[in-house]
Specification:
By secondary structure, this protein is an alpha/beta fold. 45% of the residues lie in helices and 16% in strands.
Length: 400
């Protein structure tokens, strides 16, 4: 994914006329922290935090717990976060962190120890004005609360602004859980409006029905009675019903640890994940992992709109193929920016010792998403560029 990100950066840099030296500087992270964490049982885990660019403000980015976390992945995600915060117009920089661990294999006590030791190791490098981490893959408000508590024990800081994605009791923001999925729906709405204002009736397939994908489904159902969820998948299988699925029911099924391979409901059938990507729907939402659509399967995609809700779910070669064949791909640094936008709003609330109603948070989120989509769309039209190239170019202009 790092190579693909750099290719998109290279393309945007050429469009903007940046020198090779300027581009090299933009690719280079400000700081990288790689270290080991040893638990009391003797197990050791590799841990990382990459602080890419703070030209616009404190570093901002999630922490993921996953066995395949490595330095290159964290570098890529930190770079994307710098671009994302810039494209969204936030006064923040970009960072990312992670631990190479399968959290399902740890007890609650071990998970808490790992979380606290990660925060303690990074304490000199993070803080409300330096670097403000948040949850990501396999991390949540409970884990962030542990990290916040450890940081505050060491530093004495009581602002709660050193981390975002916290529980409401620890200064978290209303609307944060649904923010990324909601932001994707808002971004698609704005794109459709800019393209002509129609599309009251749409069929949608969601690849990756986790936190982001499920909230995309439930929010779109709340806002648009004519948008029909035709399919949704997890890592093993997909559920398909051309007459429509109940997103809320699927969300509850997944919350109860149900697997789509075992799903049974009237009118729905279980299909393979590859089949979901090839369904004849209007919108394909990619909310799983990177490189989902690649050179080998891009030709099977039939959806006119492809929404990158995961980071880097479409490879560079696949992206070029899709855009050359008339598909419209809404890029990740715009489509999934809702999470970091509401993280920023949480940080603002902490700094001002306020707590805003969810309706106010959602309204502010909508304003940021609409502006980011319009700015990207207008640049793409003016420069005859793809939306991804436009988004990267707009972001680079703000970072240069």
């Amino acid at each position: 994914m790092l190579d693909d990100t750099h290719q998109f950066l290279d393309e945007a840099a050429r469009r903007l006329g940046l020198s090779s030296e300027e581009l090299a500087k933009l690719k280079q992270a400000d700081a990288e922290h790689a270290f080991g964490i040893e638990l009391s049982n003797g197990q050791t885990y590799k841990a990382y935090r990459v602080q890419h660019n703070n030209r616009r403000g404190p570093y901002k980015g999630g922490i993921r717990f996953h066995p395949e976390v490595n330095l290159d992945e964290v570098r890529t995600l930190a770079t994307l976060m710098s671009l994302k915060t810039a494209a969204a117009g936030l006064p923040l920089g970009g960072g990312k962190g992670g631990i190479a661990v399968d959290p399902r294999k740890l007890s609650k006590e071990q998970l808490e120890e790992l979380s606290r030791k990660y925060a303690a190791a990074l304490e000199p490098h993070i803080g409300p004005d330096k670097d403000v981490p948040a949850p990501d893959v396999n991390t949540d408000a409970t884990i962030i609360d542990w990290m916040l508590d450890e940081y505050e024990k060491i530093t004495g800081d009581t602002s709660h602004a050193s981390f975002t994605g916290k529980s409401l009791a620890k200064g978290g923001s209303h609307g944060r859980d649904a923010a990324t999925g909601r932001g994707g729906v808002l971004a698609l709405e704005e794109l459709l409006k800019l393209e002509g204002g129609g599309h009251k009736d749409l069929t949608v397939a969601i690849q990756g029905f986790g936190n982001v994908g499920s909230f995309f489904g439930t929010v779109m159902a709340e806002r648009h009675s004519g948008w029909r969820l035709a399919a949704a998948s997890d890592s093993e299988a997909a559920v398909y019903n051309p007459d429509g699925l109940d997103a809320k029911a699927l969300q509850q099924y997944k919350a109860g640890r149900g697997r789509f391979k075992d799903y049974s409901d009237s009118g729905a059938k279980v299909v393979g994940n590859d089949e979901l990507l090839a369904l004849d729907v209007d919108v394909l939402v990619l909310a799983g992992f990177e490189n989902t659509v690649n050179q080998s399967n891009a030709g099977s995609v039939r959806a006119h709109y492809v929404i990158e809700m995961a980071n880097g779910p479409v490879t560079k070669q696949a992206y070029d193929y899709l855009t050359d064949h008339g598909h419209v791909v809404l890029p990740d640094i715009i489509a999934n920016a809702g999470g970091v936008i509401v993280s920023y709003l949480e940080w603002v609330q902490n700094r001002s010792h306020e707590s805003w109603p969810e309706a106010d948070v959602n309204a502010k989120l909508a304003g940021y998403m609409q502006k980011a989509v319009r700015e990207t769309y207008d640049y793409a039209k003016k420069e005859q560029a793809s939306l991804k190239s436009a988004a990267f170019s707009v972001a680079l202009q703000k970072l240069s």
